[in-house]
Specification:
The complex is a heterodimer of chains A (about 260) and B (about 90).
Chain A (H helix, E strand, L loop, with lengths): L2 E2 L4 H6 L4 E2 L4 E5 L5 H16 L3 E5 L4 H9 L5 H6 L3 E5 L2 H4 L4 H13 L3 E5 L1 H6 L7 H14 L3 E7 L21 E10 L2 E11 L9 E6 L2 E7 L3 E2 L7 E2 L1 H21 L1
Parallel strand pairs in A: 3-7, 3-8, 4-5, 4-6, 6-7
Antiparallel strand pairs in A: 1-2, 8-9, 9-10, 10-11, 12-13
Chain B lengths: L4 H12 L4 E3 H7 L4 H13 L3 E6 L2 E6 L1 H22 L1
Antiparallel strand pairs in B: 1-3, 2-3
Helix pairs in contact in B: 2-3
Classes of the chains: A alpha/beta (about 260), B alpha+beta (about 90).
Chain lengths: ~260, ~90
């Protein structure tokens, strides 16, 4: 099995070496969880570390904002475009939904740079422009298959709603069967602070890490840390310490209180 | 070439976002206008090959004609050089 590395070492380890080539991947998460950053990092690493050109297809966010945001992480997208290794394509989703819209919009770009990776930002926008009575799953399936048949691995972004205490279910949107791999990014509240957790919810045809991992968005992009082994219920968004950790906490507090009392 | 404010806005939009490929209405929306308001200016820019057009599903889409735009820029540079030469 050929693996497509993301170039984020810890994530590749979680994926047992990377995404399976030509698998459709979904990066799901609520606003601000870093979906765009992760997707861009996957593309930029593909070009700079593995020699795989890429396309970033955006519907609403104008390219100049994406160039600027990428620059903050040290990724010079314009330079990669000049080298014909990257293209940032911006269009309206309704054009992509036209019969042969994908081909008309992307064929010439695909011929120009021979990409191996493509990001679609986002499936939500595609859904927003779907004509009344249109079947989102059918349209998304068509677009993803167009990309796959060109020998490109698609990565689609899906913005989810997140409310405290509610576990996210990709099946809510009825599209989980369309993709081969789902990465979920999530805010979790721990000790009155917002922390971010990543989990691989699904990976067809491959073993993968099932543990929730904490991550941070640094000046170099995604940095994935350890798990939340001291907590339970992280997926619900309202985690609590496991019983043994609660005992340790109580013991420490009691011990500090005792020390305070004896020192007076 | 820049005979109207709309042309200026279109030029800035496409230069900042060279990967933009959109319908007339889509492009217009991105500069806060409606399709009918920019139609004539778009056509002028297509005529001088700064913008290109193509059909998708019976709709005309607009994009930056990279080679035409580059040629137009070179013509302007040459013109300015000649102008400077004359005044010196």
């Amino acid at each position: 099995m050929t693996r497509q590395k993301t170039g984020i070492v810890e994530l590749d380890a979680m994926l047992r070496g990377g995404f399976l080539e030509r698998d459709a991947v979904m990066v799901a998460g609520s606003a601000g969880t870093g979906k765009t950053t992760l997707s861009l990092q996957h593309l930029v690493n593909g070009i700079t570390k593995f020699g795989e050109p890429g396309i970033y297809l955006t519907f609403e966010q104008l390219p100049d904002q994406i160039y600027r945001d990428a620059e903050n992480f040290g990724w010079d997208l314009k330079k990669l475009e000049e080298q014909d290794k990257f293209r940032l394509v911006c269009t309206s989703p309704d054009l992509l939904l036209e019969p042969d819209g994908a081909g008309q919009l992307l064929d010439s770009t695909i011929k120009e740079i021979q990409p191996r990776r493509m990001v679609i930002d986002s499936l939500n926008h595609l859904e927003m422009y779907l004509p009344r009575g249109g079947d989102m799953r059918k349209e998304a399936y068509r677009v993803l298959n167009y990309i796959k048949t060109k020998g490109i691995s698609p990565l689609a972004i899906w913005e989810t709603q997140q409310s405290a205490g509610q576990a996210f279910s990709v099946t809510d949107v009825g599209m989980s069967f369309l993709v081969d791999c789902i990465l979920l990014l999530k805010f979790v509240e721990i000790d009155s602070a917002m922390r971010m957790a990543l989990v691989i919810m699904k990976m067809r045809g491959s073993d993968h890490d099932k543990e929730l991992k904490e991550y941070a968005i640094t000046s170099q992009g995604f940095k994935i840390g350890g798990g939340f082994s001291d907590y339970e219920g992280v997926m619900s968004g309202i985690p609590h310490k496991v019983a043994s950790e609660r005992f340790v906490d109580m013991f420490q507090k009691a011990s500090e209180k005792h020390k305070g009392a004896t020192s007076h | 070439m820049l005979s109207s404010e709309i042309k200026g806005d279109l030029l800035v939009l496409f230069h900042k976002n060279p990967g933009l490929i959109d319908s007339l209405d889509g492009v217009a929306r991105r500069i806060g206008r409606v399709g009918t308001a920019i139609q004539a200016d778009v056509q002028d820019m297509v005529n001088v090959r700064i913008l290109g057009t193509r059909q998708i599903g019976g709709r005309e889409i607009i994009f930056l004609d990279r080679s035409g735009d580059k040629a137009a820029q070179e013509t302007i540079i040459q013109y300015l050089k000649n102008l400077r030469g004359k005044t010196e």
